[in-house]
């Protein structure tokens, strides 16, 4: 059984990134959306990315950015993967997928239809909670049943939204994602990670990985 991967989002400093890498995080998210309290300037992100091991995948988080903006930021920072929120079309995702690993984000609002993810065959899929103004890091829990249904329509599902050390094991059992994404659930303040919470979260994921009730295939 392939272990559930761990993505930690909202990285803003080298120390937090190093601790995440030491604990075994597979992906680190850097938020380039100006409206986020965890926004990081590209030059700062590059310094952090250069300090982390090559085995850890840096992910650039974008909201309604053009393909040119995404390419320019990726070139300036060294991100290998782009996570796209908002109204990014399948055509733009397909175009970018020839250059990057692309994660298309969906929020489980009342309009969410799991089968919609089939329009993004070149992308991995992240399912998050809905918030009217924010894109991620809200602490709100997404619709796990909707996320579970979306899993059957995508090659790689990342579950996000309100995950903590207390509920991530249940989330993995319920949704059977390929990866989990955490942000506010391991913070002492927006953009500042709580290292004890990080360790406890990673331990909870590893415990769930070894559970005999794992539904992943």
Distinctive features:
single chain, 217 residues, alpha/beta, TIM Barrel, globular
Structure report:
32% of the residues lie in helices and 21% in strands. The termini are close together. The chain has a single domain, classed as Aldolase class I (TIM Barrel). The radius of gyration is 16 Å and the shape is globular. It is α/β, with parallel strands linked by helices. The chain is built from seven helices and ten strands.
SSE string, helices as H and strands as E = EHEHEHEHEEHEHEEEH
Q: How many β-strand runs?
A: 10
**DSSP strand content:** 15-25%
> What name does the CATH topology carry?
TIM Barrel
- Average pLDDT over all residues: 92
Helix count, per DSSP? 7
Write the layout of secondary structure elements.
Layout: E1 5-8, H1 14-23, E2 27-31, H2 42-51, E3 57-63, H3 67-77, E4 81-85, H4 90-97, E5 101-107, E6 124-128, H5 144-151, E7 157-159, H6 168-175, E8 179-182, E9 187-189, E10 192-193, H7 195-209
Parallel strand pairs: 1-2, 1-8, 2-3, 3-4, 4-5, 5-6, 6-7, 7-8
Antiparallel strand pairs: 9-10
Would you kindly provide a brief summary of this structure?
The protein is α/β, with parallel strands linked by helices. It is 32% helix and 21% strand.
């Amino acid at each position: 059984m392939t272990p559930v991967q761990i993505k930690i989002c909202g990285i803003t400093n080298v120390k937090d990134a190093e601790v995440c890498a030491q604990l075994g995080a597979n992906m680190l998210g850097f938020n380039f959306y100006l409206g986020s309290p965890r926004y990081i300037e590209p030059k700062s992100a590059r310094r952090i990315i250069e300090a982390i091991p090559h085995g850890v995948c840096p992910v650039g988080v974008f909201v309604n950015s053009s393909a040119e903006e995404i390419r320019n930021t990726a070139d300036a920072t060294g991100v290998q993967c782009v996570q796209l929120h908002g109204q990014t079309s399948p055509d733009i995702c397909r175009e970018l997928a020839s250059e990057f690993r692309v994660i298309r984000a969906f929020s489980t609002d009342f309009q969410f239809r799991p089968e919609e993810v089939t329009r993004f065959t070149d992308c991995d899929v992240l399912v998050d909670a809905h918030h009217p103004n924010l894109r991620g890091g809200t602490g709100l829990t997404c619709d796990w049943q909707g996320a579970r249904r979306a899993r059957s329509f995508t090659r790689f599902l990342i579950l996000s939204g309100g995950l903590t050390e207390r509920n991530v094991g249940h989330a993995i059992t319920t949704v059977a994602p390929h990866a989990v994404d955490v942000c506010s659930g391991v913070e002492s303040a927006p953009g500042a990670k709580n290292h004890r919470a990080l360790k406890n979260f990673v331990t909870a994921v590893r415990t769930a990985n070894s559970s005999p009730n794992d539904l992943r295939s």
